Amino acid sequence: MPKFLQVVSKAKHIAVITGAGVGAESGVPTFRGEGGPMEEMADIATPEAFSRNPSRVWEFYHHRRHLVLTQKPNAAHLALAECEARLRKQGRSMVIITQNIDDLHVKAGSKHVLNIHGSVMETRCVSCGDVTVNHHHPICASLEGKGSPDPDIPEAEIPVDQLPRCEQSDCRGLLRPNVVASRGVPVAEFNMTTTPKTEYFTRDPI
């Protein structure tokens, strides 16, 4: 820990990586933890699922949006926001790179946040690609009271023309949650340190 503090005290640019655990303290279930929707995600949070049944996907995320809108940042979110503010006064910078889609870092006051999985509070038009922040709840009238996680409650089967629509006057295309879907774009990880696996990724020059 002393060495870590020494490095941080001299760093001009700091990156903090956060995951689902930081949101759990605020009452947002982790996808893989108890009460999390990991199994349901496999059938819902994919591009194919949205094409087949956008109503079901919107019900799922409508419930997630409700959870996020009713929760507050916890001590970890607030501490990171305060740390960023202090570093900024010292002429240094800090960025938070998070896989969370709950926007609680932003709500806590953090200014530089990279949401690598997107945000449940944003929508993307499948027609024109417009991305918009949307905190309305419900996001459209047809989703009022829908999206219960209770498996005994049947799906609403909302007609496509009653689901969230793009507000661009010349578009009105179907909106989807602006989050990264499962089985999405492959991510490459680069390790600058030599490891036992390095030989699999390097070749001798020809």
Describe this structure in words.
With 206 residues, this protein is of the alpha/beta class. Helix content is 31%, strand content 15%. It contains 7 helices and 6 strands. A 3-stranded parallel beta sheet has the order 1-2-3. A 3-stranded antiparallel beta sheet has the order 5-4-6. Helix 7 links the parallel strand 2 and strand 3. The longest helix is centred in the first third of the chain and has 17 residues. The protein is elongated, with a radius of gyration of 20 Å. The relative contact order is 0.16.
Provide tags for this entry:
206 residues, alpha/beta, three-stranded parallel beta sheet, three-stranded antiparallel beta sheet, elongated
Ranges with pLDDT <50 over ≥5 residues? none
Global outline: elongated
Helix content: 25-40%
Strand content: 15-25%
Which class of secondary structure composition applies to the elements? Answer: alpha/beta
Number of strands: 6
Mean of pLDDT? 86
Radius of gyration: 20 Å
Separate helix tally: 7
Query: Could you give the order of strands across the largest sheet?
Result: 1-2-3
Sheet with most strands: 3 strands, parallel
**Helix and strand element order:** HEHHHHHEHEEEE
From the N-terminal CA to the C-terminal CA, the straight-line distance is 45 Å
Give the helices and strands, then pairings.
Blueprint: H1 2-10, E1 13-18, H2 20-24, H3 38-44, H4 47-52, H5 54-70, H6 75-89, E2 93-98, H7 104-108, E3 113-115, E4 118-125, E5 131-133, E6 175-179
Parallel strand pairs: 1-2, 2-3
Antiparallel strand pairs: 4-5, 4-6
